[in-house]
Write a structure and sequence with these properties.
The protein has 273 residues and is α/β, with parallel strands linked by helices. The chain is built from eight helices and seven strands, in the order βαβαβαβαβαβαααβ. Strands 3-2-1-4-5-6-7 form a seven-stranded parallel sheet, with helices on both faces. Helix 3 runs parallel beside helix 4. The longest helix is centred in the middle third of the chain and has 26 residues. The model has no long low-confidence stretch (mean pLDDT 93).
Length: 273
Amino acid sequence: MENILVSKTAVVTGAAQGIGAAIARLFVQEGCFVYVTDINDDLGNAVASSLGSSACFQRLDVRREEDWQRLATQITNQGRNWNILVNNAGITGFESGAERHDPEHARLEDWRSVHQTNLDGVFLGCKYAIRSMRQSGAGSIINISSRSGLVGIPGAAAYASSKAAVRNHTKTVALYCAEQGLSVRCNSIHPAAILTPMWEPMLGSDAGREERMAALVRDTPLRRFGMPEEVAALALLLASDDATYITGSEFNIDGGLLAGTAATPAVLDDSET
């Protein structure tokens, strides 16, 4: 089977680990050249090195417009067309500890910090991707939002707000590109509990790990964590030419969480069958 991203160039933000790294790996497997971008130089370089000559690491702070300008110029100077952008970089706001992020007690500086990365970063990425993709008239922008962008999260108000804004901006970008006569598509992916390094402090590595994992996904109908590779598979579809009629859409990857509730599957013994 032919690789579906042959001759394409992608930028993946927050690609040093987790979902971003999984997307970068799958894109390379499908023939794409990937700019692995992050602010973690060590992990970012390690991911890019593991992907060989089909990837390179570029330090990118998604909050800084000059970093995006530099990256866009670099892609052009290297003779590549920027075909795909995955805006994956994001923070929860809890990276430095258990700060209060509810609507009453959240600090303005924490609120702004989360939005700078999660929303400003997406805005800037879309801005420079559109300008670059205008040269060829086509491309795919994939914004990683969250299940939290579709529902209220009282204890993570800034995160939920930023991801909801990403969802809406995705639709705005899709409509703008269509108005401009560009075949530049923009879609959002909304993961729920995906097993990435972000969860490790909560899960631990002792004998109680499995019990804690089960507790965290008890309300998920499929009753398990999703894997980064599953999100990557969806991103691959949206990046490919198989999705050229999909734009302004949102895709939940949440084990059925937003569909409602599901009863625990019954286990029958032989006497009941």
